[in-house]
């Protein structure tokens, strides 16, 4: 008999009625959809489990969108004509049916229901439709479409669409015909089934099996296999866990059926990504902008051993025939070196490679090489492929190798196995770029940030983070949390403020009925889609008031804007709408033939700020526009002249897609992205559910009690920028006289210092960067670049609002001499504060009962009255004299003498016990770690940063190798622009105790840092090779009693976040702290 279709329509009708209650549901348990589905399965469980019920066909009717192998090629207009002829409608009722084409009316399904209700035909029980009949009819219709899967097309039916559909509509009630129409259109919207729960009600293992075999046939075949067919469909939770463990031992993928993909989370900032990783070891893989493919190999099939499946699950082998020889060569099929003896499943990304430029080409180039069911689509305006352009495949995972079920293996083992199976062929096949990062390290946050900066600068699409020690699917492990086995996607357009944005004009709208039900909350809905246009004659419009001429470049709908924006455009567009046939306010042309036509134009176009994931060339177009555009804001105060013109948009696209030409340009861009990344890393960001149907995770599933990650106070350099252990002379010195000096010290191994130069420039290739390329001597360009960058920012003198402190903090009288810009005034003010006064103040502060203050470090808490670091840390400036807010001024030296003697005094002062005592009052955590700090203020327009850093490194190296000089075992010297003295600041202001203050200072005035650590043993190598990835080993702190003359590590870095360690406090109590000021 089969399963009656009206039972399914009962469920759909109840789900549609329960949509209003779903919005107000507080928790998933309160979701009415869950309750409705549960009740429906309880009522029809016996019929569902009946032997006469074809559960594959039932599932195909419940989830029509999952049948990607079926393409009906039926849209609303053609379907409405079939319905009209099938029901033999007269002109009046036919007009009622076609009202779906007019704005403000329901979709075709609702119109069909209304028309059929006017003359409802009684359906006898013997004539009632079953899901089996409907599914067979759908398969016959799909078999006649060339875009359906090859298995469907093999059973091509000779019956035409109209005769098939006529029999279905004539045997349906008006209500059932509504849902039949939506099934044919492959969307039950606004009804959305709770997929996981619905599959689980069929059988508790079905959600996992459907992911393993992304096909209803394959998943149900596994349910019918031994011993799973003996399991009850819905056991209690305890039994379900035990039975699941047994079932996992028998689950294996099948060649010829696509394996599903893991769920993923979207990282909304570096901080959010770091938190989701939660200390795990991760494989960070480059996300390529290509076309996903899953390759199935069966060596026993002599005629067609290779099958290629697309992301949707459709068998696309015939369309990918150009890449089949590449797959055969990469896997060595038929050769002696082939590692595949039976079957294999791999994953990769199809790309276009350019042999002349030796680079991967844009995604749009794929259209010319990848047909759709034998048809090249959207290539009318594309140039033909060149002989040096061809397909390549980038492999990134292996899921099965013969009897080895790789899905259950951790990612690191799968990667190693992939390296053995796949042969790299230049420009034809390769392995995805990978970095391995242990997020348990203190500097992991900084490393991820640096690596992501590199990815953005090189115009990569983003990263995919996969846990190195976790399997492909979490179903192979028990007792794990919600993050286990989930990937994390990190893209710049996921992070607020980092995507590509541009102001564009909305010049018209149109009405598409299939979106009406999803926009039911919009009052007076007139338009569902809107037309984005750019002026072609912007200069003429601005100069002499010429008639505007727009080119429509894109059409956006409900997925590209919020409901508030949709309501705004519909509400205010009503005042400006004009008919395109009658309106002469501006001319309109359409960018390509694939764009639909606007039903109404807006006399006054709306100017909107749009966000995109880069720029792309649309199918059939010759221009670039935003990829995945979304409206961020509607500017009601702007006119169409304020929006980007067509020429300006193309210039923006060209600049956004162009990678930096040289290292200096790359450095400048990386610094800009670093600032933007820090702005984007804000807490409590709202995370949207992934839109991909195969990626359904969101942060709403996160546990509120999960521990927050430790964000390091002083992150170290990125792993990609570590250099070989080389003598100081080889890495920094570029002067012949100084080379002679250091050549003498190289005779003895104990006198060879080691240096790590981190220029914040990650190499483009994973190889270790050449040391000679990192010389900093006479690097005037670096200082001038930073200075020009700050000039562009036009930073004004700091106002009281910039640091956002309470008003009572800002009402203290200024210290005399500190309101004037310049280093001299700074030193004069500094000389008035002696070390004796500082010590007395420290003693008094210790005796004072102050508020409890939280240091930034989690491991050290003190109840002390903190002092500003500017009153305790030695300070030196090359332009004038040696001194500090806390240390006396040294006079009588000219500039040349200061460069040697005074600088040595400065480094020795940093190492003194007096400086250590002062540091305890301002930076107790650093003092407890035997760390010393110093600050150098310099004018980049007068002094080259490279020269000054080289001078500090040279002096430090000389003192470190000296027999009697007691240099601090570990320390940092920060280079800040003397322009910070232009701010009306007080050196003893407690605001300088805060990390937030130094982060802001660093973003505007920081240039670099020279740090050293003499406690590192010389027997440890710089690099640690992990899974083929070069990673720096963490410093090994030796006993403090070791001689000071141990071989030093010297590090030069340029990360603005480094200077934030000068502030160790996250909050202080203003009233208590200022009482003695």
Automatic annotation (TrEMBL):
GO terms for cellular component: DNA ligase IV complex. One of its GO terms (biological process) is nucleotide-excision repair, DNA gap filling. It holds the Pfam family DNA_ligase_A_N. Residues 684-719 are annotated as: Disordered. SUPFAM superfamilies: DNA ligase/mRNA capping enzyme, catalytic domain. One of its GO terms (molecular function) is DNA binding. Keywords: ATP-binding, Ligase, Nucleotide-binding, Nucleus. Residues 393-536 form the ATP-dependent DNA ligase family profile domain. Belongs to the ATP-dependent DNA ligase family. This is ATP-dependent DNA ligase family profile domain-containing protein. It comes from Penicillium brevicompactum.
